[in-house]
Amino acid sequence: MPEAAIFDIDGTLLDSVDLHALAWCDAFAKFGHRTAFRKVRSQIGKGGDNLIPVFLSERDRRDHGDELEQWRSKRFKSLYLPKVRPFAAVPALLDRVRGRGLRIGVASSAKHDELQQYLDIAQIRDLVDETASSSDVQDSKPEPDVFLSILRKLNIDGVDAVAVGDTPYDSQAAGKAGVRTIGVLSGGFPESLLREAGCSEIYSGPGGLFAEFESCLLAGVI
Question: How many Å apart are CA 5 and CA 68, to the nearest integer?
Answer without folding.
Answer: 34
